[in-house]
Design a protein that fits this description.
alpha/beta, five-stranded parallel beta sheet, 12 helices, 12 strands, 38% helix
Amino acid sequence: MRVLIIDDVHERLIEGLKELGLAVDYVPDFSPNQVIEHIHQYQGLVVRTKMEINQNVLSQATSLKFIARAGAGLDNIDTDYCDSQGILYFNAGEANADAVGEQTIAMLLSLATRLQKADKEVRAFIWDREGNRGWELKGKTVGIIGFGNTGKSVAQKLSGFGVKVLAYDKYLDAYGNQYAVESSIIEIQAQADIVTFHVPLTSETKHMVNDDWIKQCSKNIVLLNLSRGKVVDTMAVVRQIKEGKINAAAFDVLENEKLHTLTTAEKEVFDYLVKSDKVVLSPHIGGWTLESYEKISTVLLQKIKQLTLS
């Protein structure tokens, strides 16, 4: 079996696949055109976020048996077409759940303590205690939308803060645990002070957070998105911050993360987020730690091993 790896991965995966007797071509500098040109030679493909593995690519992958996604999301893979062609696909969502969980807590605490604003001001010789008065998590209600690997990690990490955690996941049953109460969307909108999103990007979740969704929340909320940028209508968030319905927001992901390609409208929204003291931003690094980098490759290696031995 030949495996093509077109994104940067930890050496553990490369060496492990070779130990299994697989022929591995590690070419993270391959262009999308080169991938299309050569993919017919391979039975396995390992990809991160380098390119869209769409029907145009997959139609050339005449020998492909599996696609391994080095990360959590599968939104850059045409899974429907894979299903029609019998191509297996899987991710390593369990490998970076702790990393995203910790990033979520970090961003939430930064909003609560006004840490970024305070740090910036002190560096500018501004000593403003009252203007940087924060708020405490204890006693708040946190709603977690999406209770897979990452959502569960967030709930566990919140357990020491004295908060009430409500969780919703459309695709799970009886998923409440010692860290979170299984809830409906309506219950979360009625009770939550803080809502954090950890869902995959699908046709159902695209722009699930819009003006209507936010206005249906009983309280003025703090909103965090560490899933995929297009889950949230960012323009709606800006409107609701201006109207006071959103007290603060954190984004590890954006609808368009290629900042040099922002449209005029996108640039206007982005400029507002950058200038706002109520917003914390990071460049899609929630699941990208030193530890998760290796764990992702370890998890994928085990899944490919099971596949090749079955």
